[in-house]
Write a structure and sequence with these properties.
This protein has eight helices and 13 strands. It is α+β, with helices and mostly antiparallel strands.
Length: 303
């Protein structure tokens, strides 16, 4: 299999689309017109997978991996042409589940090797995206410089640069009370050895909420994760089925449940229940148990 293609990307809120278009054209960018795109994201264990249906144009399946930081970032991706998007969409939805659908109107401009996207995203608003396409042997320094030059020329402010993807922004919002409980639990964590406090909060289908923090121990195997603490509180409080989960930590990297806690959650949580991964300021990514624990083994396997 050939190596994935790469580019350097930056995505930001566009406060003044008319001004951005004017500045891009003044830089010599070629206006290639408007595309209407629908991206259907599927649940996958690694990276992201989406079916893009485009008019004018064709359909493509795109698999990519990219960090979620609010900076210009490398994206590694593979693209496959699709002849029957309806059939493929149905098959992938049945096998992996649909995470979210993103509809957008995209104005495409080309400057050197950079694709400038002026996007109007349904349910979100106006954004500008810069994609500097890399040659196979590139060290990405040229592409990073191109993006930096365009960012300055288009007047993209630091505060407007986005983390994640449009799909992340459109994901179901976390329960505010659940977020507050998880973040409060962080401050009560007992983590003298790792120095990495974590809080978790669960909401049951009947509306009850439970929280827990990680509890470390000098004998390392005796420690307990935040998710396990929250589940223990839920069981002690009468049990139930988990409808939503928040995991929070003061970290710029995603704090995801460990393998053991994914299995613990599986005991009480439906596959499509939302699991929100947060820091102390924002939800950094929303996922599901099915994405975190594919091909899982649960209580029904013992029936």
């Amino acid at each position: 299999m050939s190596a994935p293609r790469r580019n350097v990307e930056l995505k930001a809120i566009d406060r003044d689309p008319a001004r951005t278009l004017e500045r891009a054209v003044a830089l010599g960018a070629r206006d290639d017109g408007v595309l209407v795109q629908r991206d259907t994201y599927f649940g996958v264990a690694h990276g992201r997978l989406k079916l893009r249906e485009e008019s004018p144009g064709a359909a493509h399946l795109i698999a990519y991996e990219r960090s979620d930081e609010a900076v210009a970032r490398e994206s590694a991706y593979r693209i496959a042409a699709v002849d029957s998007p309806e059939e493929l969409r149905a098959a992938l939805a049945a096998a992996a589940g649909v995470r979210i659908v993103v509809d957008k109107r995209r104005r495409l401009l080309l400057w050197e090797t950079v694709r400038i996207h002026l996007d109007e995203v349904a349910g979100l608003g106006a954004y500008v995206e810069l994609e500097a396409v890399a040659e196979p042997d590139s060290d990405l320094s040229r592409e990073a410089a191109q993006v930096a030059h365009l960012r300055e020329a288009l007047g993209i402010a630091d505060a407007d640069v986005l983390e994640g993807s449009y799909a992340d922004l459109l994901a179901p919002a976390a329960d505010p009370e659940l977020l507050a409980l998880a973040r409060a639990a962080v401050s009560h964590a007992y983590a003298p050895y790792s120095g990495f406090p974590v809080g978790a909060a669960l909401r049951t289908t009947d509306g009850r909420r439970f929280a827990g923090a990680n509890v470390e121990n000098a004998s390392y195997p005796q420690g307990q994760c935040a998710e396990a603490s929250a589940l223990g509180a839920m069981v002690a409080g009468g049990g139930g089925e988990v409808a939503e989960v928040v995991v929070a930590a003061p970290s710029r990297e995603l704090c995801t449940p460990c393998g053991g806690c994914r299995q613990r959650l599986r005991e009480f949580t439906p596959a499509e229940a939302p699991i929100h991964l947060a820091d102390l300021e924002r939800v950094r990514r929303s996922t599901t148990l099915a994405e975190l624990l594919p091909l899982s083994f649960g209580p029904e396997a013992l029936a």
